[in-house]
Design a protein that fits this description.
The chain has 434 residues and is of the alpha+beta class. 49% of the residues lie in helices and 16% in strands. A hairpin with a 2-residue loop joins strand 4 and strand 5. Helix 3 packs antiparallel against helix 4. Pfam families: MATH_2.
Length: 434
């Protein structure tokens, strides 16, 4: 990973990402590099940012968190994913933007489709290594040197976390060269297309070329040379037969067991298709057979995703059935709970009503008792008062009773005397008559 300055305000940053298929994080950052004295870095989403089937790439203000409020920073940037087989067919996109606190990164959500990125024939991944180049200018008066064989795209097609427009820089390739060019011609083509440090930038001084090629230039050359030589490898008839057998074996397997279709890895099946699509082998095939062969490879490599999705959908139904059964049982339990509760409430209400009747009866008894006690209290109080009054008169009554007793004794005595008198008188008359 290295940056090479073209001027104080224009920098080319090269990022070599090894073991690309082993990246497990959603975001993958480069080291910091400096343009115009300010730190930047590159951010990629190997599996896409909010989109599927695309690699996303952005230029990030590395020190955004420490900048004062209200900061802005202009950048014109060209992102490149290098085709390590045919560098002239590399994918380029260019944009410009004034970044700020809310938009501290800028780039393309749909930069390169994953199917192209992971296709060994496209050359974007070589030995599981991806080469990223970023040209950055921070001076609005400076344009980036235009790369050769690239159709210019609309600079407004870039976005911040949104899908990019389909209009983009498209590499110009010649299919005839791809099949018929000799190894030497392709090597010379690689030499011609290597980045040049002598390209002029408009509005600034001409940049002087380096006396010797950089290590990056040499690495790119020999990487391309390896790819060129590999593309012209001649396969034997035995290798072709073996390749056909490998593909037949894959087709005889159940789709769910096709575990060797792992994206981004050179597998036995990839090699088999590579053998069949080689120039020597493909020359024996008709155009329809070549087209069918490419479609077959694509369909086979899509099998794992399709099987995984189908298996997931099937498992999802089983999971939902289990959930449905659990919910049904819980709801039945709840229904029984509410029914039982309602019956218990009715019984309790009946008991409460019965208790209310008993309370009313007892209240009536209480009222009757209170009324009887009140009446008894009145009678008792009257008798008490009468008794108290009698107690006060009692001595008088006792005196009268004693006087009456004496009177009765006197009367009895007088009565006895009168009786005795009559008796004596009677005796006297009796004697007088005799």
């Amino acid at each position: 990973m290295e940056s090479s300055s073209r001027s104080r305000q224009v920098t080319k940053f090269r990022w070599k990402i090894e073991n690309f298929s082993l990246i497990e994080t959603k975001k993958h950052y480069s080291d910091n590099f400096f343009v115009g004295g300010n730190p930047w870095r590159v951010l990629i989403f190997p599996e896409g940012n909010t989109v599927e089937h695309y690699l996303s790439i952005y230029l990030v203000v590395a020190d955004a968190a420490t900048l004062p409020s209200g900061w802005t920073r202009y950048a014109r940037v060209r992102f490149s994913i290098i085709n390590q087989i045919k560098p002239k067919s590399s994918t380029y996109k260019e944009t410009s933007h004034k970044l700020n606190k809310k938009e501290c990164d800028w780039g393309y959500t749909e930069f390169l489709s994953l199917s192209e990125l992971h296709d060994p024939r496209k050359g974007y991944l070589k030995n599981d290594t991806c080469l990223v180049e970023v040209d950055v200018s921070t001076d609005e008066s400076i344009d980036l040197p235009a790369p050769e064989f690239i159709v210019e795209s609309d600079p407004n097609e870039a976005d911040h976390g949104k899908p990019a427009l389909k209009k983009q820089k498209t590499a110009i390739t010649n299919p005839e060269e791809e099949i018929n060019a000799s190894a030497l011609a392709l090597v010379l083509s690689c030499l011609e297309q290597l980045p040049s440090n002598a390209q002029p930038c408009s509005s600034i001084e001409t940049i002087k070329p380096k006396e010797y090629p950089s290590e990056e230039d040499m690495d790119a050359l020999f990487t391309s040379l390896e790819s060129v030589l590999a593309s012209h490898k001649v396969y034997s008839s035995e290798e072709v037969k073996e390749a056909i057998s490998i593909i037949e074996e894959a087709l005889c397997m159940a789709p769910a067991s096709a575990t060797f279709f792992e994206i981004g890895k050179l597998s036995t099946l990839d090699k088999a298709f590579k053998v069949l699509s080689s120039s020597d082998c493909s020359s024996a095939l008709t155009v329809e057979q070549k087209t069918e062969l490419l479609a077959l490879e694509k369909n086979l490599k899509e099998v794992p995703q399709r099987v995984a999705k189908a298996t997931q959908d099937k498992a999802l139904l089983s999971e939902k059935e289990s959930l449905k059964l659990t919910l049904t049982r819980d709801l039945e339990h709840s229904l029984n709970f509410f029914k039982q509760g309602k019956a218990e409430l009715i019984q309790i209400e009946q008991k409460i009503a019965s208790l209310h009747e008993q309370v009313d009866e007892e209240e009536k008894k209480k009222t009757d008792i209170l009324a009887a006690r009140a009446e008894k209290f009145k009678i008792t109080n009257d008798k008490k008062m009468e008794l108290e009054a009698l107690g006060k008169e009692w001595p008088e009554y006792e005196a009268k009773a004693k006087a009456a007793e004496d009177e009765l004794k006197t009367v009895a005595a007088e009565w006895s005397r009168m009786k005795d008198f009559i008796s004596s008188t009677k005796e006297s008359f009796r004697k007088g008559t005799d």
